[in-house]
Amino acid sequence: MALYMAMNLYFSGYREPCTPSVVHFDQSLRLCRWHCRTHRRDLAACAAALTASLCVASIKTPHTVSCWTSLLHAGQRLRHQHVAVYSNIYADTLPQHHSDYFVYRAGNERQPSLQRLLRPHPFFHDDDVGLLSRGPHYTVAVLRPATGSPLYDLHIFHTENPTEWIHRKVSVTEPQRRFPLLIPKNCGRLLYHETSTVISIGGEAGTMGWVDLWHGILLCDVLRDEPTLRGVPLPVPLDLVSCDNGLGTELGNPIPFQGIAFVKGCGDNPEDCLKLVHLETKTTFVPGNIETGSFSYQMHDWTILTYTNTAMTSSWNDWRRDCRIQASDITIDTQIKSELLQSGLLGPASGQALHNLLVSHPAPHISAAADHHGIVYLMARKKYQHPEGWILALDTRNKTLLGAAEFDVECLPFASHMYRPTGIAKYIKPSTGNAMFYGLS
């Protein structure tokens, strides 16, 4: 039985086939019944042939078969995928030992590859694992709190030694400094660490960061013989801490409100930096049907705040706010506006202007090129949990909407992670035709 992995990609703001600077990975992975003319193959535990094909989705809702997958991390050339294939079974019921973990490496001057990680691998949640690319090699690292201890369990896999997982107990030797203001009880979630995502910084020591988008970052040099952890704070979400007359609001999943990326300096901006995007919203809760328990939100306006950090120490002062723009101040190009009106996302049919759209999941642009500074991506929907979504590309410096692309969210209506910007576009070349496949031979 051959199972073909088609990793769906979406472009933002591009109308013609081209090689964009950033590709957005759908956080799901499709198992399709067609053969791609170029692919990479590996054998899963059941000895079935598993073939990875990287393609750009030009349709809103691709056909899928029964499976469950979730993206663990997308580096510049690597994609780490947790694959558990079953029929008519919910993913949450799958035993851990029935899952396999694959690392896909995009090709450039070398052949692309698909590698299944060694079993038995340590148990970890998708948000706890990161990938570090190191030339011809890579490292997979997992950080989990140790049970009943202030220490953390660090699990490391190096491709130089593919038959061994390294396990170490690590401690936080440089904790982040205390919050610069009193945190109300309702915002107590800010006071402890629970990893939301992992970023790869690199360097000689192999620095990686386990990010809690509410609390802060735990940096670790995973290539050192005796790695330790050091804390880096994140800007306090003042809109959530100060609301309700200073009582604050209870904080849930941070991913719909904050996004972070590490950007390696080049060109006009030689410094490496962290980029953070925070989304402020002004909404009204709209109760729905009592029997079904459905509900919604009405958006009145939303605001984007962006920050950069080049020092990455334990100091709050390392963060510099770059901009703050309100949706009601953003201008839209005539052609883009016409497309959005035709789609029904904006206009009389939907009764919505840009500032009324239900937006979420902000993400900074990961390119250091000067003409990409200040670009932010957002997920937009007509209604709360609507199956159709759009990725918006905003130029926060010039307060303009650069483009919008339809993005299928039907299979992930309640997911926290929806998409992830990645620089893998520079390793693939577009072909002609409506179905745009990329050379993975």
What this model shows, in words?
It comes from Brachypodium distachyon (Purple false brome). InterPro entries: DUF1618 (IPR011676). Pfam families: DUF1618 (PF07762). With 441 residues, this protein is mainly beta. The protein has a domain at 256-415. It is built from 2 helices and 29 strands. Strands 1, 2, 3, 4, 5, 28 and 29 form a 7-stranded mixed β-sheet that branches. Strands 14-18-17-16-15 form a 5-stranded mixed β-sheet, with no helix packed on it. A 5-stranded mixed β-sheet has the order 23-27-26-25-24. β16 (207-212) and β17 (216-221) form a beta hairpin. The chain is globular, with a radius of gyration of 22 Å.
Question: Nutshell version of this structure?
Answer:
This protein is mainly β and 441 residues long.
Helix and strand topology:
Blueprint: E1 2-10, E2 23-26, E3 30-32, E4 40-43, E5 49-56, E6 68-74, E7 78-84, E8 100-105, E9 113-116, E10 129-134, E11 137-145, E12 152-158, E13 165-170, E14 172-174, E15 197-202, E16 207-212, E17 216-221, E18 229-233, H1 238-242, E19 258-263, E20 273-287, E21 295-309, E22 320-326, E23 331-332, H2 334-343, E24 358-364, E25 375-381, E26 388-395, E27 400-408, E28 419-422, E29 436-437
Parallel strand pairs: 1-5, 14-18, 23-27
Antiparallel strand pairs: 1-2, 1-3, 2-28, 4-5, 5-29, 6-7, 7-8, 8-9, 10-11, 11-12, 12-13, 15-16, 16-17, 17-18, 19-20, 20-21, 21-22, 24-25, 25-26, 26-27
